[in-house]
Specification:
heterodimer, A: 265 residues, alpha/beta, six-stranded mixed beta sheet, three-stranded antiparallel beta sheet, globular, B: 274 residues, ABC transporter involved in vitamin B12 uptake, BtuC, 13 helices, 0% strand
Chain lengths: 265, 274
Amino acid sequence: MSADAAAILATGVSAGYGSRGVLESVSFSIRAGELVALVGPNGSGKSTLLKVLAGLLAPVAGGALVLGGYPGRQPRRVAYLPQSEAVDWTFPIAVLDVALLGRVPRIGWLRGWSADDRRHALDALRQVGMADLAQRQVGALSGGQRRRVFLARALAAEPDLYLLDEPVTGVDPTTEEDLMRLLEAECQRGKAVLASTHDLAGVVSHFQRVLCLNRAIVADGPAVILRDAAVLRATYGGHLVEVRGGTALLMDDPHHTAPNGRRHA
Amino acid sequence: MLSALLDPLMLGFMQRALLASALVGAVTAVVGVFVVLRGLGFLGDAISHAAFPGVVLAFLIGAQVTLGALVAAVGTALLVGWVTRRGALRADTAIGVIFAGMFALGVLLLGTVRGYTGDLMSFLFGNVLSVAPADLWTVAVLGAVVLLVVGALRKELTFASFDPLGARAAGLPVGTLEYLLLLLLAVTIAVAIQVVGIILVVAMLVTPAAAARQLVDRLGRMMVVAVAISVFSSLAGLYLSYAYNWASGATIVLVQSAIFLLSLALAPRRAAVV
């Protein structure tokens, strides 16, 4: 993939579930090597957009090119990290086996894991700091640890594009720093990352660029635009949000807003 | 003691019954693991009830009960899959409508033939002691097919069950795998009806797997433990039913139930899983 090739090119994408429209004519492009945050309030369409790009949901209008092809056509080159709610955490599967699932698009039907697959999976777990718990049942982990294991699964897939739905939700601040450095390193190797998040301060300090979504793209620019009150008002509507000195305050629901700006689910 | 174990083995019908129930126990346990993990117990119960008209028809035309059950069960499984996929109905509603209708059809069919009411009991509760050599072959072949398919698609079925969205994004045909699982379930049920009958099939599917889940937390180990529990229950249940002249299917199921209760007591304490 050449450095200036578009990893994602979305043109007028509208999508939703049944008669309920969520996305309205969303257009943007992401180049290889870019680290892009996707922010917006609940129901703004972040997950829907990621699903469209992963080929899980067909747009009702418009279309997207992902790594030059239709969404979902190149599963080997795209790693999708679903939201935690979509996963059955009671399933009897070990952490290492979850990471190995990232290798599924590479090995095909009727074949088991090779030594190389295991090496990649273990290596990815080591990178996210979960190698010690490789034999733990995944449901026995904390929310933040589960996110790290899923990120390891994405890394083990060795994709060219990461589509991550809230990869750092529930992760402690120190680990978040580590995970963001991992993603930065991936981008420096020419991979593209699009990650949804509610942690606005984290976006300002770690991401190059931000897409502000509220059913349509309301702002698209360098991460520091989140310090602009007008941008935040446009994105989050009536809710009062402020990013001050790298600290985001989401004040629409004080009971669920921690002092560091992280919203607990 | 030894003669109590060996004497029944001298009898041809007991040999076949032991073999058939052990085979069925292994197959139901393996498929049952997915039934338990996916919460398909009600669907399993429904498919076995819906197999009733197939069983009655097979009996009336002198065909193998397993084959009659197979046709009705597979048809029902595909119908349920289709209705839930396209209708705005919850799965349990669609299942309820279809299985009650099919079961009623079976009752009606049976009622058209006088003098067969005595066989109703063996349809509903199984009669493994009457397994003929040809039945045994059918059970063996169908069971082997089910085990081979599950073995070959283990990583795909695991991925699709654990994280269906992630599996689809990774390029797996999750919808097709779903239908395949329903198909495997239907074949397994058809095979198991001969042993425990329509009403008790659901126990063969869920009880050994549920007991195994209490004891281990890996898919592979869960299958091994479930098969061990299930095969042991089949053999022990048959011996008990022979010794005390109890109903064979019911005895097998009761042995499974006892092991399940034991597994609850023995289960290592785990943190509640969300």
